[in-house]
Amino acid sequence: MDAIQSAATIENLIRVFAIFFYAPIGLFAYKKLIPRLPAAARRLLSFLLLAQALAVIMALESETRSGFEHWLWHLNAEWNAPATLSTIQMALVGGVALVAAWLAGGRSIWQRLYLLAIGLVFLFLAYDEYSNFHEYLRDWERLYTALGLAVVAVTLAAAFAGPRSAWKWHICLLAGLAMSAAGALLIEQLKHEDLCMSLGALGRDGCSWRYFLEEPLEFLGIWLALLAVLGHLSVLSPPPTRAVWALIYLWPALWVALLIQSTAIITIPGQTGAQPAAVDFASGARLHGFRIEPAKGDIKLHLFLSPAGWDFDGLGYSIHLVDQVDGRSVAGADKHADRQLDFFLAPGYQPVYRQWLRLVIPPKAPAKRALWIVLTLWTQREGEYLSQTVLTGDQRLLNDTQVILGELLLRGGAEEGTCLWRFE
User: Fold this and answer.
1) Among 84-88, 122-126, 274-278, 414-418, which stretch is predicted with the lowest mean pLDDT?
2) Which residue has the higher pLDDT, 25 or 415?
3) DSSP state, residue 288
């Protein structure tokens, strides 16, 4: 019943979104802006708009399902159909902007530099959309906010320095950026469990419906940005040749092939900046790597763990700080593996759990003593938690079910900070 109510809620939200966003923006674009473009540009925009609708419909159909199909169409998963569509749209914005900069021989040097900058920025964003590079940067929100403000500033400067006839395309680009930023801010504001739970029935499923607002906002925003750069390209004299349009149409396939080639030979730790590991458990799960971030009063651990299959089977894990002197646990945290699986185009093409676990160090933890950071995998079966045996691995073991990921030294108590050493 909850799944049916959740699906109904999402359907209603999609209807509201279509009425208040897609319908008016699409009608305005097709009435006022798109008729000014050549036929090749109009076909490209229409195809991408239909692809967005298909992605949202398929995500809705697979919302209550599990396994591969759920991952394939989930709006917040990586490496799947919606994520590929998103990176293709961004890459098209970047590619078209670079083509416009290349062909704009009659424009001023500043206009060409502006188009070049827009092209490079969107190609970087397209790669980041595919690789999640930003997740491994400190304060990436501030960095990307600064990048967005810089794009807004140069766009305004280009608008005032250029012909008034191009203003509509600059405004279209700014509107698209604003819509995409609104989608990203929406997900950041609604991802907190306390806020979701305060929404009553809407928060019952953990606010999973928010992706049906965030991703379409980003889809539509990037679509407007593509409309803008196609507008800049369409006013060039002489106009783009058939060969240029053929290259633009082939660019999505070339871009995806380039991304696959650049990542399929790189290991998961190599793509994520994680500490490499190769630990196999009896259930078939495999630990590829981990990242540990010590801080004042706690540590954050990010595991890159592949399950034996696509479906959730009660898998979970525990992290403990174990005193090396007496072998007792000083602190611990337990968590079920996230039902959402991500997919890495790394050797083996494996689905991977990616989630943080925060371990709070108690104030009375022993000072100036080395503690082991220990990982245990378990499976919940009929109310019992069965620890999984380690079959093979390159990490030190505390026993046949506990993997030592590193050491933690408290310098003078949890309140005075920590220092971390990792085993090679």
Assistant:
1) 414-418
2) 25
3) E
Quick check: 274 pLDDT over 80? no
Q: Express each pLDDT in 178-206 by its tens digit.
A: 988 877 665 555 544 444 544 454 444 44
**In this structure, how many other beta carbons lie within 10 angstroms of the beta carbon of residue 325?**
10
Tens digit of each residue's pLDDT (9 = 90 or more) over 410-424: 765 544 545 554 444
Token couple for 70: 């759920």
DSSP designation for 202: G
Which DSSP letter does residue 135 get?
Answer: G
Residues 300-326 have a mean pLDDT of 79
- CA 140 – CA 83 distance, rounded (Å): 20
Q: Which amino acid is at 122?
A: F
- What gap in Å lies between CA 3 and CA 65, rounded to an integer? 10
Residue 62: exposed, middle, or buried by beta-carbon count in 10 A (0-12, 13-18, 19+)? middle
Residues 382, 370: contact at Cβ < 8 Å? Answer: no
Which stretches within 62-108 are classed as H helix? 68-73, 81-103
For residue 321, give both structure tokens.
Answer: 């700080």
**Which residue's entry shows tokens 């008729």?**
35
Q: Which two tokens stand for residue 153?
A: 């500033």
DSSP 216-244: HHHHHHHHHHHHHHHHHHHT-SSPPPHHH
Q: Is 41 exposed, middle or buried, given 0-12, 13-18 or 19+ CB atoms closer than 10 A?
A: buried
Residue 18 structure tokens: 């279509």
- Asked if 338 contacts 355 with a C-beta cutoff of 8 angstroms, the reply is yes
Position 9 scores a pLDDT of 55
